[in-house]
Amino acid sequence: MGMMTKTNEMDFELTPQELAALGGGKIAYLKPILSDKIGEMFPGAPELAPGLSLFMLLAADGSPIMITDSKDAAIANAWEHDLETVSLH
Asked: In terms of pTM, does the model score above 0.90?
């Protein structure tokens, strides 16, 4: 008989309050985003050329800290504020 393997994948969603509580004020989330979505998410944002790959650095409660075209700049900004980064997809 062959061995069977089981994967333990879980799919769940957290509320913004639950997500913020997980971070304890020490975690920032790094999320890749296309420039096309910025105007939808932030109605007052300046217009950007479509199709640009950007990175959002978000506080644990989901509020934006910065948007940049450089993953390294986002991570450096988190480090400057003593935040550990976690990637969101």
From this structure: no
Q: Give the DSSP letter of residue 79.
A: H
Beta-bridge mates of residue 75: none
Q: Which ranges of the chain does DSSP label H, i.e. alpha helix?
A: 16-23, 35-41, 71-80
- Please list, in sequence order, all residues whose beta carbon lies within 8 angstroms of the beta carbon of residue 76, skipping any fewer than 6 positions away: none
Confidence grade of residue 26 (pLDDT, cut at 50, 70, 90) = confident
Question: Tokens representing 67?
Answer: 């948007």
Residue 17: the pLDDT is 60
**Burial environment of residue 83 by CB neighbours within 10 A (0 to 12, 13 to 18, 19 or more):** buried
Over residues 80-87, mean pLDDT: 87
Integer angstrom CA distances of residue 73 from 46, 54, 66, 80: 20, 11, 10, 10
**Token couple for 56:** 């959002």
In 3-state terms, what secondary structure has residue 78?
Answer: helix
